[in-house]
Amino acid sequence: MSLSINRRVLNKQLKRWPGWLVLAAVVVIALAVATVGSSGPLTDSDRIDSISQRLACPTCDGESVYESQASAARGIRQQIKRFVEQGTPSDDQIIQYIQNQFGAKTLLVPNASGFDALVWALPAFAFVVAVAGLAVAFRRWKLVADTVATDDDRALVQAALNDQEREHES
C-alpha cells in the first residue's frame, strides 16, 4: 500500500515539472528581451517625443508633456526641441534641466537609484514574497490533504475512540 502511494505522489510531482520548466523559460526570455530594450530614438523628432513622454505637465493632472496642450507643456516641448537641435548629448541632462526649472514633480518615470528606486521596488518585492509564501502554504496543505491514512493511523484512531467510549461508560 505504501509503495503505491509513493508512486502516485512521484507521478504527480513528475507531471508538474514540465509546467514549471516552461514557466521558468518564459520568465527568462521575458527578462532577456526587457534588458536588451530598444536602441533609442532614431531621429530628433523621436528623441523629443521620448523625452516629453517622460515628463509630467506642471499645470495638468496626470498628463505628460507629450500629451498636454497646456501652454506650459508647449513651452517645455519647445525647450526640449531647442536642446536637441543644439546637440545636448544626453536626454538625462535635458530632463535634469527641466526638473530644476519646474521641480521634482515633473518626472513621470522615477529615478532608478536611491530612495525613488526603493519606493518602487519594495511593493513589487513584497508581492513576490507574498505569492511565494502562499504557494508554499498551499503546497503544504495539498500534501497533507493528499496523504492517505495507513493501517497504523486507523488503529490509533480506533484506540482513541475505544478509550473515549470507556470513559463514557465509567
What does this structure look like?
With 170 residues, this protein is mainly α. The protein has six helices and no strands. It has helices spanning 2-36, 44-53, 71-86, 91-102, 114-146, 151-169. The chain folds into three domains: 1-37; 44-109, Helicase, Ruva Protein, domain 3 (Orthogonal Bundle); 110-170, no CATH class. It is elongated. Helix content is 74%, strand content 0%. Helix 2 packs across helix 3 (71-86).
Layout: helices, strands, pairs:
Blueprint: H1 2-36, H2 44-53, H3 71-86, H4 91-102, H5 114-146, H6 151-169
Helix pairs in contact: 2-3
The percentage helix is over 70%
Shape: elongated
Number of domains: 3
Chain-averaged pLDDT: 80
Oligomeric form: single chain
The CATH top-level class label of the largest domain: Mainly Alpha
Q: What is the radius of gyration? A: 31 Å
The total count of helices amounts to: 6
Q: Which CATH architecture of the largest domain would you pick?
A: Orthogonal Bundle
Write the CATH fold name of the largest domain: Helicase, Ruva Protein, domain 3
Q: What pattern of helices and strands is seen along the backbone?
A: HHHHHH
CATH superfamily of the largest domain: Cytochrome C biogenesis protein
Measured between the Cα atoms of the first and last residue, the distance is 38 Å
Could you say which structural class the secondary elements and strand pairing correspond to?
Answer: mainly alpha
Give a count of the beta strands, DSSP E runs of length 2 or more. 0
Low-confidence stretches: none
Q: Please summarize the sheet with the most strands.
A: none
Strand content: under 5%
